[in-house]
Amino acid sequence: MSGQLQQVIRFGFVGAVNTCTFYAFYWPLLHLAQLPYFVAYTIGFLLSMVGSFFLNTYFTYRTTPTWKKFLLFPLTNVTNFVVQSAGLFALVHWVGMNKTIAPLAAAVVAIPFTYVLSRRILVPRHQERDEPETAAPKIPVK
Fold first, then answer.
1. How many other CB atoms are found less than 10 A from the CB of residue 68?
2. Residue 131: pLDDT over 50
């Protein structure tokens, strides 16, 4: 199996973990704190983004996290947020989908956009071209 295909599979796995993390924040904010669904969605999204950065850095792309990457990483999530938000709004208001499950359906649409952008930010160009896939690096955050 090619390195890129393995990377896509790992990205999918990380996405599933990140979706569960998001939902672990979203559900209680929506149902227990009784926040409006979009406020609960936004808070859950922002909190799960930090975990997503580290999982994608170490596990998906097997590269070293840096402050620069950490600060640029939200750009991938801005795209993800816009695509998912539009999908969430459309599913809840136009399709009539339940607001508890609509974020999960909207997340599926954003996957290809997020993969392309996160790879561009987290994988150095020289590693993309030259280096074979290696084990995940150690933790130094620069």
1. 10
2. no
